[in-house]
Design brief:
The complex is a heterodimer. Chain A is mainly alpha-helical. Chain A has three helices and no strands. Chain A is elongated, with a radius of gyration of 17 Å. Among the domains of chain B are: 81 residues, Four Helix Bundle (Hemerythrin (Met), subunit A) (Up-down Bundle), CATH 1.20.120; 41 residues. Chain B contains eight helices and no strands. Chain B is globular. The chains are: A mainly alpha, B mainly alpha.
Chain lengths: 106, 205
């Protein structure tokens, strides 16, 4: 049960739940959270592959985990920028509805 | 750890991860979504620990469930959306289209995983949890740090630049300035109407 295949099915389902959240929700906060969900699913796949291929990899046994650490840094930066954009949008339009942002006009 | 115990823990964590992430994308109130997202991050951290990535498991708890979620909850409390501010969610067609796209992507991924010969080889070469560790110190902070600062030093420095840019960008975006004034004004209230002129005066410098 605890195998690389099961973990990959788990990551695929988490990633697709994230896709559903990004596409279906209209609340910007929840859309950002769904993005974090998708990033986490990818992290899990990277760590699982790193555990399996650790010895075979020429880049070092921890390269999968280091890749995940970099994704973590990107996610932190993305959360900071995304939430500050959210604050600016809230101040300007008093709304967190993504449909109101789809017009692309000031 | 016995394989049975490992399987059971993984099963519980995986089930919890899927259920809590489903709850994240379906709750109407964003604060509930945030709390379920914390549960989901914690389960992923547990799976990292099962995969012998101990340092990364604790990093996951610290950075995701700690720092990033505090940021989210802080922003939710800052803008404090009332019931009427929450956008109306899409109807049955919108959700159906989104679920259809997600299901198509999932079936493609599952098909690829099921057909993969590399994965079949890996699965046939021995039980996964009992696979020997690449080194006795695999995933511990000392070995991890040595590899990070020796082989992957450039990537590490680039990540620090990225985070610096993120900090500067976040500060620049949220700084409120009136035309001509250098200091940010007090930021206790959001504008209570969607007036375009007031918004423009707040944003443009």
């Amino acid at each position: 049960m605890f195998s690389i295949t099961t973990i990959l099915y788990l990551t695929a389902s988490l990633f697709c739940i994230g896709i559903y959240g990004v596409l279906a929700r209209r609340n910007i906060i929840v859309v950002l959270m769904s993005l974090e969900l998708m990033l986490n699913a990818v992290n899990l796949a990277l760590v699982a592959f790193g555990r399996v291929h650790g010895t075979a990899s020429f880049a070092g046994e921890h390269s999968g985990q280091i890749f995940t650490l970099m994704v973590l840094a990107v996610a932190a930066a993305e959360a900071a920028i995304g939430l500050s954009l959210l604050l600016v949008i809230w101040r300007r339009w008093h709304s967190i509805d993504v449909r109101k942002l789809s017009r692309m006009s000031g | 750890m016995s394989p049975w115990l490992q399987n059971t823990i993984f099963g519980v964590l995986a089930l919890l991860a899927v259920v809590s992430s489903l709850l994240v994308v379906t709750r109407k109130n964003p604060i509930y979504s945030a709390l379920f997202l914390i549960v989901m991050f914690s389960t992923i951290s547990g799976i990292f620990l099962l995969l012998d990535a101990s340092f990364l498991g604790f990093m996951q708890l610290l950075v995701y469930a700690g720092a990033i979620m505090v940021l989210y909850i802080f922003v939710i409390m800052l803008i404090n959306p009332r019931e009427g501010d929450l956008p109306p969610e899409g109807g049955f067609t919108d959700k159906g289209v989104a679920a259809g796209i997600a299901l198509i992507v999932f079936s493609l991924l599952a098909f690829a995983i099921g057909k993969s010969e590399v994965l079949a080889q890996l699965a046939s070469s021995g039980p996964f949890p009992a696979r020997p560790l690449p080194s006795p110190t695999h995933g511990e902070i000392a070995a991890f740090g040595l590899e990070l600062f020796q082989r992957h030093l450039l990537v590490f420095e680039l990540a620090s630049i990225l985070i610096l840019v993120g900090i500067v960008g976040a500060v620049h975006l949220t700084l409120r300035r009136k035309a001509g004034a250098a200091l940010p004004e007090s930021s206790e209230d959001a504008p209570d109407d969607a007036g375009e002129t007031r918004g423009r005066e707040l944003i443009d410098v």
